[in-house]
Amino acid sequence: MLELINVWKSYEDLQVLKGISFKVLEREVKVIFGPSGSGKSTLLRCINMLNPPDKGEIFLRGINLNKPETNLNAIRSRIGMVFQHFNLFAHLKAIDNVSIGLRRVKGLSKEEARIKALETLNRVKMTKWADHYPAQLSGGQQQRVGIARALAMEPDVILFDEPTSALDPELIGDVLQVMLDIAKSGTTMIVVTHELGFARAVASEMIFLGEGTILERGTPQHFFTSPKSERVKKFLEQLDILYGGHEKLLELSNGEENK
Amino acid sequence: MIFQARPNPIEEFLVVLGFWDHLLPGFLIMLWLYGLALVMGFFLGLILAILRQYGGRIFSRVATVYIEIVRGTPLVAQLLLLFYLPTSLNIPITAWKLEVSLTLLDKDMTITLLNQATLTGIITLGLNSAAYQAEYFRGAILSVGDGQIIAAQSLGMSRFSGIYHIVLPQTLRRVIPSWSNEAAYLPKYTVVVYFIGVKELFREAYYIITNPYISANPLTVYIVIAIIFLIMISLITKGLDILHKRTGIPGL
Question: Number of CB pairs < 8 Å for A and B?
Fold first, then answer.
């Protein structure tokens, strides 16, 4: 459904993406992870053409996005995006954040858009907060509205750019739960995240990005049991220390003391 | 010893206020210049700010150059330039004018709303204010941040639609406190039209002071005018303050 062929992107002198290729099938959930600076966010911004790639091709349902005659606004309405810092429209209530795209892009009437927005807010369990402004909501609630905003447009695929990394730990759960729900309902998703629990639960494939290239790819099973490259092993180990593996941390600090 | 009779201050004020049939038209002319220039500067300034921020290389340059030239040259020079421009281009100046007359408490007053000089004044003040307002708007646009328009575009909204529906509503709310600066400056800048003979408050003050029949203390006349400005500007800033609170985004 979505296909990237040899995508390159640089910012001035910095080569960020060095030939990325992969395919996303219908109803698939791809998880992209890797160290910071490896080009994960750039990759997502290339896919929805907010930062068009310098070289390479991206196809969405057979349409070549790099062709100059492609209507990028129409394409973007079919590619949802959820941002790390939510980027909710600050002057609009939660419900209007969700309905504005329906009205201004899909041309729905005010009433139609409202009904659709309420349905979508219900899917992310935010109906109760429909009339609140973003600044009146917690980070987790804002992100759920952000997901609803993307979801309401019924896009072909939704891109998640580290959706939980700006959240307090106790707020992450609700957001991940919502993401699990929509993944299970058959939404095609590309998720940049370090939430390995989420990846384990729903990812059909995980892609490890390092220095602008795909260093390793495979099922969650593969990554959690037998990662091949040393780089990946080390990265997973560090994540493990952060998200649970306390024995390792203790070992490490004991090791230091014993020196 | 010769004692000069010093009139008591209250009486002096009353003498000056007795010229209300001159102060009122002067005040109305000032208000007229101010209002039109502010509105003109508002729309032009908004367009300049948007061009400077989103206009791409060429339009952004043009807007920047305009803003810098206007802000870098004296207002009086701009006014006189525009005033003498038609003559030097050999465009004939006709003595056209638009006047309103009113009678209040048996006094007849004639206010020249538009003639060559007044029109030049309005255009100069509007063009000048636009450059300053543009910078206030640009500051507000920058404070809204890129994330908003990126999010709008990610939904499929065009750049124009994103600016209009997402960036502008937030910009106009955020700009009020700094923009009130311009709203408070501009009434005082209208005074420059004195140089091209528009009968605004200071021209009327000159008339009062030089009146051969009634002697009015110049100091008192200028104090009265200062008080008129003070009251008017206080009301404007208070009004903008209320507007800012009313339009505030809940939670922010």
Answer: 78
A120 found inside a domain: yes
Task: Give the structural domain span for A44.
Answer: 1-78+155-219
Could you report the predicted ipTM of this complex, rounded to two decimals? 0.88
Shortest Cα distance from A245 to chain B (angstroms)? Answer: 35
Q: Tell which of A153, A168, A192 closes a domain.
A: A153
Which structure tokens are listed for A22?
């992969």
Total count of domains within chain A? 2
Of B147, B173, B249, nearest to A83 by CB-CB distance is: B147
Pull the structure tokens for residue A105: 């892009």
Interface contact B154-A91, CB threshold 8 A: no
Q: Do B251 and A76 touch (CB under 8 A)?
A: no
Question: Among positive and negative, which fits the CA dihedral B7, B8, B11, B12?
Answer: positive
Q: Of the candidates B158, B249, B252, which has its C-beta nearest A73's C-beta?
A: B158
Query: Do residues A51 and A114 share a domain?
Result: no
Which band of pLDDT confidence, cut at 50, 70 and 90, is reported for residue B115? confident
* Whole-number pLDDT of residue A257: 44
pLDDT, averaged across chain A: 88
pTM for the predicted model, two decimal places: 0.86
Contacts of residue A66, Cβ cutoff 8 Å, sequence gap at least 6: A52, A53, A56, A57, A58
